[in-house]
C-alpha cells in the first residue's frame, strides 16, 4: 500500500480514533478515582488509624493503672512496661502509598492538682505534692480526617478535637457515701510521670517506657473535713468539668452538696455535703519514670 492509500485508509483513522478514545477513558477513570474516591478512602483510613491510636493510648492507661496497684502494695518493687504507639497510617497501596503522621510528647503539657480540706480548726493543703504531675500526648497530622489529640494526665485519657475535649477514660477516682450514708469518701490515685521533656514526629511506631518509682499519699487518714476544694490545672477544663459532674451525679450528690466551675486553664470542684455529713479524703500518688524511645 502506498503512502497516499494509507493516509486515505479508513482503518488507520479508526485505529487512531480508538486509541484516542481509549486514552481519554483511562484518563477519565484515573481522574475520577483520584478526585472522588481517593479522598474518601484516605479519610476512612485516617479515621481508622485514629481508632488504632485510641487503642494504643487506652492500653497505656490500662498498663499504668495495673502497675500503680502493684506499686502501692509494695513501694519497693520496680516494674516497667514499654508501650508502642502507632504514629502514622492510612496508606493506600498503588494509589496513595504515603502515610499520615503524628507527634508524640512526654511532659510537654502543664498539669497539676491542688486539694484543700477544711476542718473547724485548721485547713489541710496538698501544697506541692500534686503539682507538675507530667503528661503523655499524641497529636495527629492527618491530610484528610480532622486532626485529634489524645492526652494522658493524672491517670485520665482525654480526646481533644479543635476547641472541644472529652474525657474518654477517667482517672482512678471515686466519690461515694459511706458509713451508712452519714459521710462522703473521696478516693483518688494520681499518676505522676517524671522524666525529661521530649517530643518526636514520626509516621512509624514509637515507644514510651514507664518504670514504677514508689508512691506517696496526703496522710490525711482519719481526718474528717467539713468541705473540700479540688483545683485541676489543665489544658482541657471542659472535659474535667463534665467528669466531676458525672462523678457527683453517680454518687447521688444533690446540687446543694457540690459545685463545679471552670475557666480556660482550671477546674474547681467544691464538695460540702449535707448538714451533718463529713468528708474523708484519701489521695495517693504513684510515681513513674517516663521515657520516650528509651533505647534511642
Automatic annotation (TrEMBL):
The chain crosses the membrane at residues 12-35. It comes from the Archaea. Keywords: Membrane, Transmembrane, Transmembrane helix. This is Uncharacterized protein. The lineage of its organism: Archaea, Methanobacteriati, Methanobacteriota, Stenosarchaea group, Methanomicrobia.
